[in-house]
Amino acid sequence: MQALLDVILPVFVVIGFGYLAVWRGWVAAVNVEGLMRFAQGFAIPCLLFVAIARLDLSAGFEWRLMTSFYTGAVASFVAGLLITWKVFGRDIEDAVAVGFCCLFSNSVLLGLPITERAYGAGALTANYAIIALHSPFCYGVGITVMEMVRARGTPAGQVVKRVLKAMFSNSMIIGIGLGLVVNVTGLPLPGPLWEGLELIGRAALPAALFGLGGVLVQYRPEGDLRLIACVIVLTLGLHPAITYGLTQTLSLPTEATRSAVITAAMAPGINAYLFANMYDRAKRVVASSVLLATGLTVLTAWLWLGLLP
What is the Cα–Cα distance from 14 to 113, expressed in whole angstroms? Predict the structure, then answer.
């Protein structure tokens, strides 16, 4: 219970303030949209750039960490796609959008602050290693599968172009990529530039959490409630369960295990809705899943924190 009060609730208090501010009309929805554009388009890429540029790649990119987390993510994606398509009878494009929702856990807006509050800023190395591959991997999987099912005779070269264009126009992927370049090459950057990027990055999480609350106001629990319930079970249950099982099987060190399981246990992120909106598929189901799963993460994250050493 103390972990719930000290670690998880402060994060959701910020989300709650954002929700309340827009719901009561104290902040206009258009202003929250601008805040989210700042957070997702500038502040979070700066945060990720600085973190990845300074990340100890040899320590962070541990194969057991990546295997544990991304095996769970892919299993959740496949399960979500097949259940939506075969059990609920939705068309294959809707199924891919729902599968992407099951794939993309909220690694930045929820995973980072909860891990940091639980174990300290020094425990985030594995988080950043996961995040470095998270957007490229998830968008790569989602866009590739969606474009393949939509292609219907389109030449493979055109499909590849669509995938690459969609991936590398994402500001977070750009921030991660530039951070990796600086890290690998050792490119020196002026001190004032580092300080400016750090200053913007420090605004990322509080701004994004407040904005996330404001954005959730527009979502309503609509659509097929049984399918939404399945998405929630997959994202908050199956993904972290597989990840946890593999971390134990592969004897992953404690700190990396914490980061992997907590990140896997987070609700789907706003990117899940952006993906559904981009293809105009299963938007109500995905939006409702993001809303309800985010609320339930208050309890499920507490349970996973209690399970971890």
Answer: 11
Average pLDDT, the chain: 87
Higher per-residue confidence, 140 vs 181 = 181
Do the Cβ atoms of 46 and 205 come closer than 8 Å?
Answer: no
For tokens 């629990």, the residue is 221
Rounded-to-integer distance, Cα 291 and Cα 302, Å? 18
Query: Do you know the residue count of the chain?
Result: 309
- Report the distance separating Cα 188 and Cα 203, nearest Å: 24
Q: 179-220: per-residue pLDDT in tens?
A: 989 988 988 889 899 999 999 999 988 888 898 888 878 777
Q: How far apart are CA 174 and CA 171, in angstroms?
A: 5
CA distances 284 to 163, 217, 233, 275, Å, are 24, 14, 18, 12
pLDDT tens per residue, range 91-124: 999 999 999 999 999 998 889 989 998 899 888 9
**Helix boundaries (H) for 24-110:** 29-38, 44-53, 57-60, 63-82, 92-103
The per-residue pLDDT for 5 is: 62
Is the pTM higher than 0.90? The answer reads: no
Phi/psi class of residue 155: alpha, beta or left (left: φ > 0; alpha: ψ in -120 to 50)?
Answer: beta
Tell me which residue has tokens 């700066």: 46
Q: In 10 A of CB 190, how many CB atoms?
A: 8
Q: Which amino acid is located at 197 in the chain?
A: L
Main-chain dihedrals φ then ψ at residue 280, nearest 5 degrees: 55, 50
Q: Kindly report the CA angle at 183 between 177 and 186, in degrees rounded to 5? A: 130
**Virtual CA dihedral for 193, 198, 199, 201, nearest 10 degrees?**
130
